[in-house]
Amino acid sequence: MIKFFRHIRQRMLSENKFSKYLLYAIGEILLVVIGILIALQINNWKEEQAERREETAILHQLHTEFTSNLKQLDEKIEVKMDLIEAVKKLFQQIDHPSLRQKDSVDRLLGLTIPYSTFDPIVSDLASSGSLRLIRSDSLKLLLSLWTSDVISVQEDDLGWKKIRNELYTPFLIEHYQLRTIRQVAIESGLIKNYLIEAGNQQTEVLDESIGLSRHKADINVLLDHPNFEDLLERAISTNRFALSQSLILRKRILEIMALLEWELQINQHKNHQP
Question: Where are the domains of the chain?
Fold first, then answer.
């Protein structure tokens, strides 16, 4: 083909048809340019298709991860809500001695001891460069803030853990019997609720009885102690704030999942276009 065009140019020059040669040369250049542009367009189209496939894969992965994160967060929220309700009922028994029942107090105490820390899957798309593949600016913004949002919630979760370990549990050890509290929790199945996988059948070790303490703990001594009331206030205040943060994060997760589902629908629609 190149020899063919060269032969035409040489024939025009030999026949002194310079004007025709010039027009032909310009046309040949245009054909080359058009060919290059078409090749670039095809290459760009292929790259765009590859990026959209990669984006779709990332969106699916993120949707799976945030579905798991939502499930875990809901479980942690339930732990906090149980603790808050238990403290409120203990306050009632503090304020109204006629309502006091040892079995009830033991169970409520068991609900105040756990702490919950949200430990989600965190995909750092920004550092990996994959964030650029996502076209939705709203989604990219929420994903870029996700890590810092999680850290904020975890810090609030650890607030109760510190109070529990350093103040609350030592107080119960000094003024009550943890063995009895634990045994009541075992008998009621309370401990199983805090497993990584709630409802897991492999819980024989948690079902083993440790028995009630032979040391008789007086619930009136505990409930009438002013420091116990103060510790319960710390428990409910700390967990209420942590719960509020967790509920805000839950709303963020739902927003992210809604945007993920919307982007996946858009990609699916485009992939099915003729």
Answer: 71-176+217-271
